[in-house]
Design brief:
93 residues
């Protein structure tokens, strides 16, 4: 993969596109793309998930700001995300 291709993969990850669609657009074999996404040391993995998780973080920032401003729907979303995050934290017992 060239650096430009990795930047493009990151861009599509940021758009939250499913791997199948990214592979189709970039004309990458879907089985190879999925294989690379299962290898957390692969450059494709790093690019795709960097884009995806950066967008998720940006969305959460926006939702949290809305929740702090009193938006009931945003508060519901943030509480659900908080529960999910807490459930994934290592136990300190």
């Amino acid at each position: 993969m060239t650096n430009d291709e990795l930047i493009e993969i990151e861009k599509y990850g940021a758009l939250m596109m499913p791997p199948y669609q990214v592979a189709c657009i970039m004309q990458i074999d879907i089985d190879l793309f999925n294989f690379e996404l299962q290898n957390n040391s692969s450059e494709i993995f790093k690019a795709y998930y960097k884009g995806l998780y950066t967008s998720i973080a940006e969305l959460r920032t926006t939702i949290l700001a809305q929740a702090k401003s009193g938006s009931s729907p945003a508060q519901t979303i943030i509480l659900k995300q908080l529960e999910e995050t807490i459930s994934q934290l290592p136990s300190h017992e």
